[in-house]
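**Protein fold record**
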Amino acid sequence: MEREQGEVKADRLEGPDPLSDSEREMIKDTWAKVYQNCDDVGVAILIRLFVNFPSSKQYFSQFQQVEDPEELERSAQLRKHARRVMNAINTLVENLHDGDKLVSVLKLVGKAHALRHKVEPVYFKILCGVILEVLGEDFQDYITPEVAGAWTKLLDAVYWHVTGVYEEVGWASSSAV
């Protein structure tokens, strides 16, 4: 079902639910534990993305033909991109108190992925889900339902802002997942 232009704009006006102070603290506390294993967690997230959503590899020429998760794990390029993803999340977490900084970071990420990399915006939604899965599985002692809810709100806001950037730059979807 296709949306009409006005509907998109109305959805955009609502925006994501803001994080409460306690939710920001839960995210910061759990992220401190996650970020201690930054490289391994980032690699786990990208491997899960590529294995569960193989179409996501189309944006990474160096991984398109790689099927073996162990081969992916050994890839220096994958590790480098995993580190970039984790550093971007770290920047968001460090600036949860600064909405302008968050929007600025997400605009940069959104523009780069829309204009330079031509990544379909749905992959941000998929990646957010993968991040939640990996955190929930690998950090079970820290990701309670309440903490997972806070992370979900943050990642929903990430997706909302990034898709807003896609709309600003006049993104036209070129393929389906």
